[in-house]
Amino acid sequence: MSLLSNKKMDLIFLFLPGVLAIGGLKLLKIDSFSYTTLLIAAYYLSDAGHVYTTLFRYRFQKREELKEVLYPFIIFSALFYGLFTYSISSIWTLVIYATFIHNLKQSYGISAWYAKISNDLKSRYFKPLFYSLNIVSLLSFHFRSDFPISDIYPLKYIFLYPSPEILRALEISYVLILLALILERINNAKSFYSFTFPLVMSSLYFFSFFLSMNINEIFVPLVLSHGMAYVVLIKKSRQAIYQKNGIIVLIVVLILGGIADYYLMEKIIFYSINIFLHHVGRSLILGALFTHYYLDGILWKKDHPQASLIYGS
Q: CA nearest 55: which of 42, 39, 66, 41?
């Protein structure tokens, strides 16, 4: 069974974006127009733009809805402004790991959604196996010795300790957990999609953290697959709740969100000599990002008032 309108749409928007991104990164020339287009689509549309499509879940006809979005945005933005003012370097470490957790939670959430509509057998092992497998992938990156180290974001903000011995132990752990996850899926998955989706997503984390050789190979597959899936599922949820498609508005929000982030990053943060504008620009971006994380933790819960409309009874 499919989450979107048909199985072909599931393949296009949920399964293939990250896989195609890996192919593009490996096959396209770095200085080519196609490679640049891939990066723009990944960073400014899929990654930055999708953050603002969370607004698509609201109609803002009630004051409470405006408060639900505006209050956390103000609080997070003010918090980050204070942290930047006092030059707390661990801000970016927080952003990196919070982003990974958010990405992983969505991957698990979609996997669980597939399990529900496929009538998979209930398993208490799937969630810990899925999370453990992909956390091991992340941990492995910290101990790799073959990745070119440079003093740029995000490498300068995470712990790196090249160690072949620790990496080998993590590789063995990864193989054992992967085999356990495959056996769990064989025993409990009742459809092709509920079997393969968690394995496809795990393969993206494996590539990004075990095999990547530059920053783009870490981020592009993950942010492209995450953002594309989020946008189409936001559209699906709005249609289920309000019986309205609104695809044009969604695309406009996606593009404007990407442009807003680009403008703040390129024009204000990187080129402005005003330290106040530096802090404000970064605080607004991170305020929007963490508001997105916070609201997602509410909007997609099984006990949310709109959950039955989205997931079915």
A: 66
Instruction: Give per-residue pLDDT as tens, 291-309.
Output: 999 999 999 998 888 888 8
DSSP secondary-structure letter at 159?
A: -
User: Could you give the angle at the alpha carbon of 253 between the alpha carbons of 248 and 255, nearest 5°?
Assistant: 95
Helix (H, G, I), strand (E, B) or coil at 94: helix
- How is residue 137 annotated by DSSP? H
pLDDT band at 281 (very low <50, low <70, confident <90, very high): confident
Can you give the residue ranges of every domain in the chain?
Answer: 7-311
112-116: long-range contacts, CB 8 A cutoff, minimum separation 24: 113/3, 113/311, 114/1, 114/3, 114/191, 114/193, 114/194, 114/197, 115/188, 115/189, 115/194, 116/311, 116/312
CA 77 to chain centre: 20
